[in-house]
Amino acid sequence: MHRRLLVPGVLATGLMLAIPASAADYTPGAPSIGDSYYPAAGNGGYDVSHYDLRLKYQPKTDLLEGTATILATTTQDLSRFNLDFALKVSEVRVNGKKAKFKKTGEQELQITPAAGLPKDTPVTVVVRYADKPSTVKVNDWTSWVRTPDGAVAAQEPESAAWWYPSNDHPLDKATYDISVSVPEGSQAISNGTLQSTSSKLGWTRYSWRSSKPQATYLTTLAVGKFDVTTDTTASGLPVVNAYSKDLGENGGAARASIERSGEAVEFLETVFGPYPFNALGGYVPNVTSGFALETQTRPFYSPKQFAKGANVSVVVHELAHQWYGDSVSLGDWADIWLNEGFASYAQWLWSEHEGEGTAQELADYIYDSYPADDPFWTVKPGNPGADKQFDGAVYDRGALTLQALRNEIGDKAFFEILKGWPTERAHGNARIPEFVAYAEKVSGKDLGSFFDTWLFQPQKPAGATAKAAGLAARAEAPAKAPKSWKKIADTHDIHDHGDAHTDGRRH
Ligand code: TRP
Ligand code: ZN
Q1: Which of the residues 58, 253, 321, 349 could staple to 306 if both were Cys, CB 3.0 to 4.6 A apart?
Q2: Which ligand does the CA of 156 lie closest to?
Q3: Ligand 1 in contact with 390 (CB < 6 A)?
Q4: Distances in whole angstroms, Cα of residue 15 to Cα of each of 8, 26, 114
């Protein structure tokens, strides 16, 4: 009845526009961002722009207490949405109002706001939590590593879920303010610039800011007792390095490597263009693992990286990632070659720069080292699969591919690409086919079959194909290892012997 009275013509249309879409039009955000290797990673329905993490950590008990404030924009009419998180949550608010929440799946925090969230509107999510991260297992695994005097979060492809709720995939990069209160005498090391420190009642608060888009796995936290060095590079970048006080015999070699970060960046700028961030440094916590990780502006290094002496090559590798991986981030974990191929090739260029073997000599060495029937050639750098994502071949054949490209298109186009790509795509995401298209544009050559051969075929490129790319088997006199090879190999011995995760992933 009433309806009929209200309906007539034009008036009804006007009213319809004013009435918000019914609840039925609001749908849940996807529990996945759609990654081809890690379906649980990331979520749909919103886009994060900023994380504000206010934390307190007690090394004695491993208790981490936090309030995460997340600024996002909806990308659909949302009835509910997920964050990726593994710790115990006590309260969630959306736009100031209490929201319902529950844990689903392995590490999903499902949040249902009091009312639907319309598309394209800003949303503020506050999550309060407290837990002992080292005891929280997902697939029998924790990314949170205890040290004798603290803890560290630095893992790939994921570590965020053990210390803050997020949209945990490189596709959704954001800026960060990370403020951590730790017992006096301990420090909290994170990304970017140290904005302030303050002490009160036996606790010291360290407030860090990372002001350029940053992927979740590149966001790091270390709590412990560190010797901190600060400096400014010739071009004015603030440098902060941190060395655990208990590095023992490795302390000297760690410093002799990482204190050369400014020099390494200066070299890398000549090949990749301007450094993409406004801070620099590295840190070495007292962990037992062997790997390094390109955490944004402040790479993580395991003490073992320096057990055989200084290794500037690994520093060059992690700093090269600041362009290839951190500023230009992969769009899907299948694109790992865009990170590791280029960071490894940077080590080859550094070797050339140091007079310890040219990139061609390193390429010849890799090419000759593995006969055609070696399993090395079965790994496709352009799509290695989740279980082989960090296989040595992704690094070595990945770099070899770049030397082959250099031979195929000549130095001029090649170096124009190495510099142009991170400039053009700075602070974004990219996929391998986009890189191929860019290389074709710059070189003016059709490179489809070239990249298919070098990145996507599970076999050794041989014969005329290899010859055309400047590589050919020297059966009678295989290439000898260039001087730099040992240090380069030490970088990825570590990749090869990292603890394998029970689901086949390497962490
Ligand atoms: N991306 C790291 C590097 O190239 C290596 C790496 C692979 C890694 N998997 C990891 C580091 C897991 C830490 C955890 O230097
Ligand atoms: Zn790497």
Answers
A1: 253
A2: 1
A3: yes
A4: 11, 20, 25
* H and E: helices and strands count for the chain: 13, 22
Report the nearest atom of ligand 1 relative to the CA of 506. 9
155 CB near ligand 1 (under 6 Å):
yes
Give me the torsion for CA of 263, 266, 272, 274, rounded to 10°: 140
**What separation in Å is there between the alpha carbon of 121 and the centre of ligand 2?**
37
Specify the residue for token string 């000599």. Answer: 361
pLDDT at 505: 33
Substitution site in 145, 319, 495 for ligand 1 pocket (most atoms within 8 Å of beta carbon): 495
Distance CA 301, CA 290 (A): 8
3-state SS class at 280:
strand
Q: How far apart are CA 262 and CA 260, in angstroms?
A: 6
> Ligand 1 atom closest to Cα of 318?
15
* Distance from Cα 339 to the centre of ligand 1, integer Å: 10
**Helical axes 261-272 vs 411-424, angle rounded to 10°:** 110
Q: How far is it, in rounded angstroms, from Cα 484 to Cα 481?
A: 8
Q: How many CB atoms lie within 10 A of CB 20?
A: 11
The span from the CA of 251 to the CA of 416, in Å, is 39
Q: Is the CB of 301 under 6 A from ligand 1?
A: no
pLDDT the model gives residue 477: 83
What are the residue boundaries of the structural domains of the chain, listed by start? 329-504
* pLDDT tens by residue, 234-254: 999 999 999 999 999 999 999
Burial of 122 per CB tally in 10 Å (0-12, 13-18, 19+): exposed
Q: Please, is 359 exposed, middle or buried when counting C-beta atoms within 10 Å of its C-beta (0-12, 13-18, 19+)?
A: buried
Q: At what angle do helices 312-320 and 485-497 cross, to 10 degrees?
A: 60
CA-CA distance, 317 to 383, in Å (whole number)?
A: 21
Residue-level pLDDT at 23: 65
CATH fold group of domain 329-504: Neutral Protease; domain 2 (1.10.390)
What is the pTM for the complete model shown?
Answer: 0.93
Ranges of residues in the chain whose predicted pLDDT is under 70: 1-24, 473, 475, 493-507
Cβ atoms 43, 81 nearer than 8 A: yes
Tell me what pLDDT residue 7 has: 41
